[in-house]
Amino acid sequence: MASGNLFNNSSEFVQFNTLQFQTNDENILGAWASCYGVVANSNILILTLPQINHPNVSEDVKNNALGEAHLMRALAYFNLVRFFGPVPIVTNTADHIQNPQLNTNRVEDVYQFIENDLLFAVDNLKEKTRGGNYKDNARVSSGSAKALLAKVYLYQKKYTEARMMAEQVINSGEFKLLSTEVPGTEFGDLFLPVYNNNEESIIAWQWMPGIYFYGSSLNTQYAGNKNLTEASYAGVVGPAQDMINNAFEPGDKRRKETFMLPGDFYPKLSASANFDGTGAVTLGYTMPAIDQDGGTNFAQGSGAAMKKYVIGRSNPAITGAYTGASNGFTSQNTYILRYAELLLIHAESIIGSQTGSTSDASALASFNKVRTRAGLAPKTTITFDDVFRERRAELAAENDYWFDLGRIDFAKAKAILENQDRGTKEFPQKITSLPITTLIYPYPANELLANPKLREDPVPYIFN
């Protein structure tokens, strides 16, 4: 939302529209707490698994489980360092329960810690080839760790290492693009539960349908009206005006699969006859010309509605079975990393800077695979800005654009953010002067109270 891809007009999320972040915001606290929760659980596994000595638990099984734990801890710290900058590195959570006051560590040390965890995961996770039996694809692999490591290298501008790791994954043949490399599929299938853990999925959150907070709520959050949900509400977010008007080139097939406009038809979505969720449920949905209020404002006043991660009413053949008993929580995976992104990482790593360009054949091959799947003409030369724009279109509403803005020159990011229309369809609004000087969030107020050392300068981490 802060990046200008999504929009919510309520007071709860206003700071993500204005970028006037508050330390007492529950969403910022949630980001911190959830990441450190993953760190704590990973630490327990990393410390206790080696102690298991049972004839039914082989070393291969233990090593693979340890690889998973190291990957998850790395992912948590990757999110923490991108959200907050310097953060404390904790390897034994129990050591700090009684005294949670500890210094933050330098950003470069956090990244080194992430690299170390991912290199361990590369060496200990199983290798696999993704196939049509999607249940077998759910767990991460050595290739998953390599792909995430390529992204981590890219964020540090370690272009040679990022290219090497990306090419190892590409050359392995483990992953494929849906649609162009998997016959009988299309781009929009990426965001339907029947295609969970498909050939393109590298890392994804796995959800349990019908159980409150164990399932994904994105169908409810993103669907424009209750007729597309099994819940008591809908339309918590809508597409932002800047994404509607500037993220996609004419003819880009991804636009229709990212957000809906009146008249768009979706043959795989089931919806009820009435906006309030009542009436007969039928397969095949056309976004109407008039919204439930008799106007054309639709979700959050955007004049449109989200499509990505919207799966419609329960239809077991497409969505899996889920109900309204727990507000329509679904089994739809949430992507952390897709093969399409890895191809763009590969192309960017060959460009090798945020100002350069290339006509390298392998860079063009990776870039144009993503672009031509979207129905766009291939390019013969690409710049960093080409890849940057392609990343926004490909990964829109997948929680990456804010981080992409955070890794480019701040003056450039500032200009992009100040040029965005961050209002509604009827009431445009811009940030005339960006109120922040860096694209990282403040530490949560509760954490600052519990650990005043967060205010101190970061210290080097002592690696064993």
Question: Would you write up a description of this structure?
Answer:
Helix content is 39%, strand content 8%. The chain is built from 16 helices and 10 strands. The chain starts with 5 loop residues before the first strand and ends in a 14-residue tail after the last helix.
Let me know the number of strands: 10
Q: From the alpha-carbon coordinates, what is the Rg to the nearest angstrom?
A: 22 Å
Main sheet summary: 2 strands, antiparallel
CATH class division of the domain at 139-206 and 333-383: Mainly Alpha
Find the CATH topology of the domain at 139-206 and 333-383. Serine Threonine Protein Phosphatase 5, Tetratricopeptide repeat
The number of helices is 16
Low-confidence stretches: none
Helix and strand pattern: EHHHHHHEHEHHEEEEHEHEHEHHHH
Shape designation: globular
**Numbering strands along the chain, what is their spatial order in the largest sheet?**
1-3
Structural class: mainly alpha
